[in-house]
Write a structure and sequence with these properties.
Radius of gyration: 21 Å
Order of helices and strands: HEEEEEHEEHEHEHHEHEHEEHEEHEEE
CATH superfamily of the largest domain: Nucleotide-binding domain of ferredoxin-NADP reductase (FNR) module
Distance between the termini: 44 Å
CATH architecture of the largest domain: 3-Layer(aba) Sandwich
Number of domains: 3
Structural class: alpha/beta
Helix content: 10-25%
Number of helices: 10
Strand order of the largest sheet: 4-3-6-1-2-5
CATH topology of the largest domain: Rossmann fold
CATH class of the largest domain: Alpha Beta
């Protein structure tokens, strides 16, 4: 595939995104490579990120523009430029496209987003263990957290890294260098399907000895994450200390438009007389047109609320419904507990009552 014909130039980026040039390509394994992006000085503040966050890419494919999220494997504390790592998936339209990108190509990118980040309250708690579970390419966001923590604190870090076999281990050489540089702080355990089989609850319990009462970050294949999370909860670890990153592929643009039309039509009968937004410690009462999403109303009123993909899968526009009711059209990111706690996605929610009050995270 010729990426030069399909990639974008700086003038072709769509609303909300920008074009960034690939300045380095690193072959990590036979089916995974990292892309380093050049961020010009004028965009560095906009692309400032936290360890564990991701970038969303809009990719032209067969006459459509597909959106996918890829976590940054780089650390804002240790690396000069952001780096995403993409593993080729059988039949994956975007992952295969991204694995053909070359140095000098331009990619359409949305600003950093995601909440898979270390709580700042605990980030420098040197007595609190940090336990990371990465499965396959799920190593990417936890690797960013690992590198950042090594730079910012002396807290003990344990990484449990599961892969098919030794040849599938992404960042193998970089991990070896970090282990040598931090032998007393960093402990890495490799679990290979070809040797030990798939990770079991019994193995998780064994690996967690001496690491109770910590912060836990999990990213990888669904069954892998479910096993680890289920075991941690059964061991009595608090749910708010267990962080799981789940990525799903959003529907194609034509499917999204059909869903949007149905949701708008269903909400047209409701009229919100008072939409109150709590943002950065201030309160704003703004108008709301029938059928508009909460995010659309905020943008129309000139409020700079957090958002990124606007398609319901990145979670950047998460907010809490403090009063009133909303209708959530699409959700690929919020957990049942978060929904029960009142969280919603501003880009996918529409007010269904006369008065709605929202609070965006500080």
């Amino acid at each position: 595939m010729g990426t030069q014909q399909q990639n974008l130039t700086p003038a072709q980026a769509t609303t909300g995104s920008v074009s960034l040039q690939v300045c380095a390509v690193i072959d990590e394994t036979a089916d995974a490579r990292s892309l380093v992006l050049d961020v010009p000085p004028t965009l560095r503040e906009r692309f400032r990120y936290k360890p564990g966050q991701f970038l969303s890419f809009r990719v032209p494919f067969a006459g459509k523009v597909l959106t996918r999220c890829y976590s940054m494997a780089s650390s804002p504390h240790a690396d000069a430029l952001p780096k995403v790592t993409v593993k080729r998936v059988d039949g994956g339209r975007v992952s295969n496209w991204m694995n053909e990108v070359q140095v000098g190509d331009w990619l359409e990118v949305l600003p950093p987003a995601g909440l898979f980040c270390l709580d700042e309250r605990h980030a420098t708690d040197n007595d609190r263990p940090l336990v990371l579970f990465g499965g396959g390419s799920g190593i990417t966001p936890v690797f960013s957290i690992l590198k950042s923590t090594l730079q910012s604190s002396t807290r003990p870090i344990k990484l449990v890294y599961a892969n098919r076999d030794e040849a599938s281990v992404i960042f193998k050489d970089e991990l070896c260098r970090l282990i040598k540089a931090h032998p007393d702080q960093l402990h890495v355990v490799h679990v290979l399907d070809s040797v030990q089989g798939f990770l079991t609850e019994a193995q998780v319990r064994h690996l967690l000895r001496g690491s109770a009462g910590g912060d836990y970050f999990i990213c990888g294949p669904g069954p892998f994450m479910d096993t680890v999370e289920r075991t941690l909860l059964a061991m009595g670890e608090p749910a708010d200390c267990i962080h799981v990153e789940r990525f799903v592929s959003p529907p194609d643009p034509d499917e999204l438009l059909a869903e949007e039309a149905l949701a708008r039509e269903a909400a047209m009968a409701s009229h919100c007389e008072a939409l109150i937004i709590e943002l950065d410690g201030q309160q704003h009462e703004i108008p709301c047109q029938p059928g508009d999403t909460l995010l659309q109303s905020c943008k129309t009123a000139g409020l700079d609320v957090p958002s990124s993909c606007e398609e319901g899968f990145c979670g950047a526009c998460m907010c809490v419904v403090k009063e009133g009711e909303v209708q959530l059209a699409r959700n690929d990111v919020l957990t049942p507990k978060e929904l029960a706690d009142g969280w919603t996605l501003a880009c996918q929610s529409r007010p269904t009552g006369a008065k709605v009050r929202l609070k965006f995270p500080d």
